[in-house]
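LOG
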Amino acid sequence: MIFSQKIRAFTLVELIVVITIIGILSTIGFVSYSNYLTGARDSNRVSQMVKLNDSIQVYGSNKSLPLPDDYIDITASGATNIIGYQGFLGVDVLETIDYTNGGTDPKDGTYYTYYVSKDRTSFQLLTLLEEGGLVSKNTFGNQANAVNYDERFVKVYGKKLGILTSTDPTIYNTPVQDISGLTSVDVVATTNTYIAHLSDTDKLEGTGTVLRAANPKANCKRLKQTGNGNNSGIYEINPTGSAVVSVYCDMEIAGGGWTLVARSVTGGTGTFNLTTNNGTLTNLNAAYTLASSNLKYSAQLFTSYSFDRVIDKSKETAVTAASLTSAPHTLSGSGITGGVANDGYNAKQGMLFVK
């Protein structure tokens, strides 16, 4: 007797379908796992930043902040005019602040970036997260550094000092202290392009004509941001890095950080011309104007903050610069371009502020 036996097996098409499904599921699983690891590393970075920020604040509450490891000088108009130090929150700093909870990037094993002001009272930290990096990927590759930061995005903590990173496509996002051969950056005179990170959303990008606004004493707004001015009064600002200007800063109204451009006093000493007169700010009850001798540096004084809002102190209200473009004073996005603050402005007692 002959028995017939049917052998069940996959056809070639079925095998291809199964293999394809397995491949898709494997890819999904790998991507999900990779995303999980990325998120976990970023959570670790954020957690460390918070702890490091707190530890440095505690340490600096009664003593000068430690200098960064392997730091470079950040200057304004010359090597002798140091405004800060940018380097790593490395072994020496971690030991100084008695931090024992890690302190290195969970992926790269590198130390975080640490910037401290010249007087060593203010600081800023930077880490580079993996999620939310550049939309368009850098195709040049990183030839100068072992760690590639071009697909990472910056997260900063602390005062708005302006940690500097590179815009060079081959080393994009690399903190300046990690750039081979670089020993200092002059934020006023540099012809190279960098990014100064004041916060996660507020940054300055360009050469010295733009970066000079990152100087902690560039204007009243920077004094407020960096913790160097909390109360209204007369302050010295240094917009060019070499020309100190005495100004009145309002640190209270509408968020503070307003620089006094002119003050009108009813029955005062006649007219004051915004393009020629130069007031001496010693008496807050006298008429005053900052004048062109200082306003010629308006790009330095107010870059990125230039006259976007103007306060007419006589009314204690904030108005737009556009509403003040007619006589007796003329304002523009780059500074005061002309106009005379004469009887029309003197007739009402008040002060004109910008930031």
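LOG (cont.) second protein
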Amino acid sequence: MPQELLDKLDYGDSTRRNQPFLQDTAKIAFVAEIKGPHDCQIIGFAMGGHRREGPSEYTGELYGIYVLEKYQRSGVGLRLLKRIAQSLYGGVHRSMLVWVLKGNRAVGFYEKLGGVVVDEKDLNLGGKNLRELAFGWRNLEGLANQLS
């Protein structure tokens, strides 16, 4: 995502926008944290639930996953993805997709895990035209087992 768009993000707006999500029991969220001597620090999160859009054969969706840069490539993202995959599979889903901006470093992450591009769409954020790719997994149980 372009840096100028990231710079415009507002924590308060984000909190208000995500409040309904956190109260919806059909959606799931996991937080990764490290414990310090006096408190905990959140280092990542992942959210998922029913597919919002995209090919109908993919019923579950990883809505988003984020890990602080300092903790990327340490296995935190894999553990978060595993929890989402297990939770979706343990519910009603047998497949999953995730939307990611073309050119994002996460593209390689999803490709290494066997995700294949199953859809594409244009996205306009703050006047910027961007391309999103949907990576899909038809066998969610297999993905969850692969991450174990």
